[in-house]
Amino acid sequence: MSEQLHVDLNCDLGESFGNYQLGDDAAILHFVTSANIACGFHAGDPTVMRQTVKLSLEHGVAIGAHPGLPDLVGFGRREMAVSPEEVYNMVVYQVGALSAFVQAEGGELHHVKPHGALYNMAAANSGLAEAIAEAVYKVKPQAVLYGLAGSELIKAGARVGLSTANEVFADRTYQQDGTLTPRRSPDALIADPAVAILQVLGMVKEGKVRTQQGEAIAIQADTVCIHGDGPHALSFARHIQEVLTSEGILLQAKGGAVK
Q: Could you give the domains of the chain?
């Protein structure tokens, strides 16, 4: 008898700051198994970080740090000319801050997932990938490193001795080399929820994704990212959870309990 499929469903949360409210974190936490919490550089602030940690613990959701570039205005989605040393320092700083809030609330940091431009830069740049992996290992060696499936970040994490999770995206299109279509392209996002669901099922059940060039490529889906800041984020989170469960796929964070 074949082993039951299982996958983690993660969402970027804690992106409000000051007087600005983004997303409905409390509602989305009902449907995901892990949360990537902004650490104050691209979004979030100390009050929001603590609130989101507490909400995640109440919902039994695995908590991850979501370090990004220091670009609040650009939401961390603009590339910056940063050195590996600078990246190492910013990741240590942000992971340390979020980990402290988790510890203060009686929990334990489960994973680290870089955000936005930092994530995409590390997916292709081995030097930046090594810096991130080393920073995570030095601060929290038992943490899982989330990265783009098959990317330099996943390879770097494995080299330093971290547990890794190959991440795929529900609402993003793919290129032939396995990278995400850049956001500046008009076809970068999948707007139709039905198409996004089909893409997720193909990645989780068949280990394949159809690229913008029209060919299916192999992909490993340990964790699926859904975004919490879109206009239909909550309804999509509910729907994808229902579909995956109805397909007999267990939803659980890596090494965590089934939700």
A: 6-251 (3.20.20.370)
